Amino acid sequence: MQPKATFILFALFYLTLNAIAQDSLNVDTARRLNQTKTNPIIYSDLHFGWAFLGADGLYGGFNINYQYKKNLFTLRYNAIADLAGGDPQLRKLQIIAIEDQGHYQEYGMLYGRRYLTNTRGLSFSAGASFNYRVRKYPNAGGSKTITYDYYPGLPFELNVNWFKGRKRRFRIYHIIPVGEPTAFGASIGFKLHGNVSKNPYLALGIVYGLGMFKHYDNGSAQNKGK
């Protein structure tokens, strides 16, 4: 990894830890003063979809997100299967043929801004990443030449997600309620993301999240939902 990319990653990591410590102190103070903002904003999300520029294939990923005021800190992992159409003779016979051309792996840290309404969040972020690229080139004899590449990148993403507007009991599979009303819940949304690097890509996916997506009011009667 290049020195500049290493420095950026460590700087973002330090800022994340510092913000978490400050927000935890604010949450403790709010509880002592019986204020309404009693939970931090921290959540994870699973996302999957299709990469359509730079790599053509399915992708899956995982994010851990922490929000302090409007500042959003993210740790991100993505994996993309780089696929292509296979034997043209099979395609002429309407037979699906897929050729494995390799895959991407990305480990990133991002900083951005997140804006909330009662039930929706909109965020955009950018940062630094370490990337791993495997390429597979077919040979005349049917075998493949495989190359490996490691390089830094500039990841970015745009997210929109929807979540519950007040504290409610957590529901397993969105059906079975368990426990008391809680700030912990699920979300659903969309993600447009990519990476500017030696091997850039752009992808669009669906996001399913779990966590605490905003500060929930403890004192209001409307938050005591079923």
From TrEMBL:
Keywords, ordered alphabetically: Signal
Signal sequence, renumbered to the chain: 1-21
Keyword Signal applies: yes
Keyword Signal: yes
Domain of life where this protein originates: Bacteria
Protein name: Outer membrane protein with beta-barrel domain
Organism: Mucilaginibacter defluvii
